DNA sequence: AATTAAAACAACCGCCCATGA
DNA sequence: ATCATGGGCGGTTGTTTTAAT
C-alpha cells in the first residue's frame, strides 16, 4: 500500500499556468506568505492546483529576482566544476548562482552544457579515426568491461581522496573551493575531504594518475590540465593521450564508466555508498580497491 | 510555405528526509 | 520509538519553439 496522494489528482489542473493563476498565486504569497503549508495554499486562494505545483511555480518563476537564460561563461564554469565535484545536486549548485533555480540549471546542463562538452567527444573520435593505425591501442578502453571500469572508478576515487584536487586542479575557482569546503564541513554525508586550498588548485602540470592507475594500460600521459574554457573552445591542451588515442579530458572520465554523462562516481554514487556510515573508512577503501584490481587481473581483463 | 527534427523549456512524478504529534 | 505528513529534490516527460530541409 502506497502513501496517500498529496492532493486530489482528479480535481487538480495540470499543465501550463495561465496568467490569471500566476497573478493569484503571486498576489497571495506577496501579501500573506505561504503560511508554512503549500498543500493547503491552493484551496485558500481558490486554485485548482496541487500544492507542490504551486510551490514549484513560485520558486521557479514567480518569486522576485529570478533570472532566466543568458548564462554567463563564469556561470558555466561554476556549474561544470561543481557538477564534477558534487554531482547532480542542483539545489546546491543553484545556491552558488544568485537568481538561478535548480530547475533552470538542471535544464541548462541537460540541454546545452552537457552537449557543449560532449561535442568535443565527436571531434576527438573523428581525429582518432583519421590518424590511428594501431587498432589494439585504439580500443584499449572499449575492451574493458563495464564492471571493470566501475571498479577502476573506485580506485580513482581512492586516489582522489588521497589527493582530492589533483583531478581537476585548474577547474576550481575560489567560489567553488569555498562551496566544497563548506559542504565538507556541514554535510556529514559528503566524503570527508581535507580542506581544499586555493594554492593547490593553481598547481601546474599535475599528473592525475599515479602509477597504479596506469593499470588502464596504454601510455597514459599525465597532461597539463585544462580549464573548461579549453574544453569548450576546443583548445588542444585539453586532450589526453590514451595510447595513440587523443581524448578530451572530460570525455576520458566519461568513458571510465560514466554512462550518459553521469559523473556520479565522484559525487553521488560515492555519497550514497558512504552515507550509511558516519565516517568514511579509508583503510577499508584501500583494501577494497586493491582487491578490485586483483580481481580484475583474475578475471583476465586486459588491464595491462 | 509546409513539414520534420532537434533543441529548449516547463511541469509533473515519485522518492527521500526532516519534523512534529 | 514510531508513524504520518509536508517539503525538497532529482529524474523524467510533455509541450513549445526554432532550425533545417
TrEMBL record:
It is found in: Nucleus. The keyword Hydrolase does not apply. GO terms for molecular function: DNA binding. This is Transcription factor, Myb superfamily. Residues 9-62, 63-117 form the HTH myb-type domain. CDD domains: SANT (cd00167). One of its GO terms (cellular component) is nucleus. Keywords: DNA-binding, Nucleus, Repeat, Transcription, Transcription regulation. Residues 9-62, 63-113 form the Myb-like domain. It comes from the Eukaryota.
Amino acid at each position: 500500500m502506497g502513501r496517500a496522494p498529496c492532493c486530489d489528482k482528479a480535481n487538480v489542473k495540470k499543465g501550463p499556468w495561465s496568467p490569471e493563476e500566476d497573478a493569484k498565486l503571486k498576489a497571495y504569497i506577496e501579501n500573506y506568505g505561504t503560511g508554512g503549508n503549500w498543500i493547503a495554499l491552493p484551496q485558500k486562494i481558490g486554485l485548482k492546483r496541487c500544492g507542490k505545483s504551486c510551490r514549484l511555480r513560485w520558486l521557479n518563476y514567480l518569486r522576485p529576482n529570478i533570472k532566466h537564460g543568458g548564462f554567463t561563461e563564469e556561470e558555466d564554469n561554476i556549474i561544470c566544476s561543481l557538477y564534477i565535484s558534487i554531482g547532480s545536486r542542483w539545489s546546491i549548485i543553484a545556491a552558488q548562482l544568485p537568481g538561478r533555480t535548480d530547475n533552470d540549471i538542471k535544464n541548462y546542463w541537460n540541454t546545452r552544457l552537457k552537449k557543449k562538452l560532449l561535442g568535443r567527444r565527436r571531434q576527438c573520435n573523428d581525429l582518432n579515426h583519421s590518424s590511428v593505425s594501431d587498432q589494439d591501442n585504439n580500443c584499449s578502453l572499449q575492451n574493458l568491461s563495464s564492471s571493470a571500469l566501475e571498479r577502476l572508478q573506485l580506485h580513482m576515487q581512492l586516489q582522489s581522496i588521497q589527493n582530492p584536487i589533483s583531478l581537476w586542479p585548474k577547474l576550481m575557482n575560489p567560489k567553488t573551493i569555498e562551496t566544497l569546503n563548506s559542504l565538507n564541513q556541514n554535510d556529514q554525508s559528503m566524503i570527508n575531504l581535507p580542506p581544499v586550498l586555493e594554492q593547490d588548485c593553481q598547481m601546474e602540470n599535475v599528473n592525475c594518475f599515479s602509477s597504479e592507475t596506469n593499470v588502464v594500460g596504454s601510455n597514459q600521459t599525465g597532461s597539463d590540465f585544462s580549464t573548461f574554457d579549453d574544453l569548450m573552445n576546443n583548445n588542444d591542451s585539453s586532450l589526453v593521450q590514451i595510447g595513440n588515442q587523443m581524448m578530451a579530458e572530460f570525455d576520458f572520465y566519461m568513458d571510465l564508466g560514466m554512462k550518459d554523462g553521469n559523473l556520479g562516481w565522484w559525487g553521488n554514487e560515492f555519497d550514497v555508498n558512504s552515507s550509511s556510515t558516519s565516517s568514511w573508512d579509508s583503510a577499508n577503501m584501500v583494501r577494497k580497491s586493491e582487491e578490485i584490481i586483483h580481481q580484475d587481473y583474475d578475471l583476465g581483463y586486459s588491464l595491462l
